[in-house]
Design a protein that fits this description.
Layout: E1 2-7, E2 16-21, E3 27-31, E4 37-43, E5 49-51, E6 72-73, E7 79-80, E8 84-87, E9 90-93, E10 102-103, E11 116-121, E12 125-134, E13 145-154, E14 158-167, E15 171-172, E16 176-177, E17 180-181, E18 195-198, E19 200-206, E20 212-218, E21 230-231, H1 233-237, H2 241-245, E22 251-256, E23 262-268, E24 273-279, E25 283-287, E26 309-314, E27 329-330, E28 336-346
Antiparallel strand pairs: 1-2, 2-3, 3-4, 4-5, 6-16, 7-10, 8-9, 11-12, 12-13, 13-14, 14-28, 15-27, 17-26, 18-21, 18-23, 19-20, 19-22, 22-25, 23-24, 24-28, 25-26
Bound molecules: alpha-L-fucopyranose (FUC).
Residues 67-68, 210, 251, 285, 287, 291, 310, 312 line the site of alpha-L-fucopyranose.
Length: 347
């Protein structure tokens, strides 16, 4: 196992790109800025290594990363309507960064923080601990929160993300990573023919602004039913109002039926790559890059709609407004801990 670091020139003075490399040659690269994962190389069925995530060609573009490519997201992943919520009977107002709403931690989210990074490597894994103290009021959120995120690559081609946080006041928190996966390799194709299998019989209904309505819907007899596997294109061709609100695709929180088993399996038939996701989180936003346009210069090509799929394991910000949703409340001095493992295999 190996690690290395490389200063990035021409951006901030303090940007560094780190590499985690396993004995098979699988590589994960990320920046201290936003913890942004810039590259993951994984083998296809012929053991040919290619990049399986979206990343900018020019790192300066990460300064204006409106799509949150590869970034750590917080303090609250997802949307908060009007940027407003009540906490212990007190009104909290967060800055708005998407029309009238607060998205992905807002304008001063964790995706824009330069994290402290410490590398480690052992016989079986190579990794890094990313640390940051988010001060009381940072991003508009109450409480000073000490955050630690561990990125770890193993010799079994597993990439694990462990999150830990402690706040000195009652607050709200749900963290995730916003990588856009594309298993075709080097962005050769879009993700419409990726097949997704998911352990979820319920999902969160959205309104036209992508804000949860408060209703939880059954996936049965809809294109949201991934329990026996289906292609992402089904949600694009769909006339279901939910897919239309999401700009013809998926941008929804799926509630898992079980925890800590491989809840999600994504396969790409041509390369033979398979990605599984196992998490202790109650659900995941699957976003099929419906809002991505053709204007961005990525490592291998120009961007386009449906070029990547985000698998954002997290809890649900809908819980701020409605009962019956997985909570994001974090009491003072309680340890927030979550773990998600992405395993790269072939079929
Ligand atoms: C996702 C979505 C969005 C979005 C974005 C970049 O997680 O939920 O709708 O536009 O990230």
């Amino acid at each position: 196992m190996q690690t290395s670091s490389n200063p990035i020139k021409g951006v901030g003075t303090d940007w560094t790109e780190y590499s985690l490399i396993n004995d098979h040659g699988m590589t994960v690269k990320f920046l201290n800025y936003g913890g942004i994962i810039t590259t993951i190389t994984a083998p296809d069925r012929d053991n040919h290594f290619e990049n399986v995530v979206i990343g900018f060609d020019n790192y300066q573009d990460y300064l204006n990363n409106e799509n949150y490519f590869g970034a750590l997201i917080g303090r609250v992943a997802g949307r908060i309507q009007q940027g407003h919520f009540m906490l212990n009977g007190q009104s909290c107002q967060l800055p708005k960064n998407e029309g009238e709403n607060h998205l992905h931690g807002g304008p001063a989210g964790l995706d824009k923080v330069v994290w402290q990074v410490e590398l480690f490597d052992t016989a079986t894994s190579a990794g890094a601990i990313l640390s940051h103290t988010s001060n009381d009021g940072e991003g508009g959120y109450p409480g000073t929160v000490k955050l630690k995120v561990c990125y770890r690559l193993t010799n079994d081609n597993q990439f694990m993300i462990d999150y830990e946080a402690v706040s000195d006041q009652d607050t709200v928190l749900t963290l995730t990573n916003h990588s856009y996966f594309n298993l075709s390799g080097d962005l050769k194709d879009n993700i419409l023919n990726h097949e997704v299998k998911m352990d979820s019989s319920q999902f969160v209904e959205l309104d036209h602004d992508l804000i949860p309505t408060g209703k939880i819907l059954s996936v049965t007899n809809t294109v949201f039913d991934f329990r026996n596997g289906r292609k992402i294109v089904d949600g694009v061709d769909s006339t279901d109002q939910q897919n239309i609100y999401a700009k013809n695709g998926y941008d929804h929180f799926f509630i898992f039926d079980h925890q800590n088993e491989e809840q999600v399996v994504v396969t790409e038939p041509i390369s033979g790559r398979m990605l599984t996701v196992k998490t202790d989180q109650p659900g995941m936003v699957m976003y099929t890059s419906n809002g991505l346009d053709h204007t961005l210069a990525l490592k291998e090509r120009q961007s386009e709609k449906y070029l990547g799929v985000c698998l954002e394991t997290q809890s649900s910000p809908a819980s701020l407004e409605h009962t019956g949703f997985p909570s994001i409340y974090l009491p003072a001095d309680e340890l927030y801990r979550q773990s998600t493992t992405f395993s790269f295999k072939t079929i």
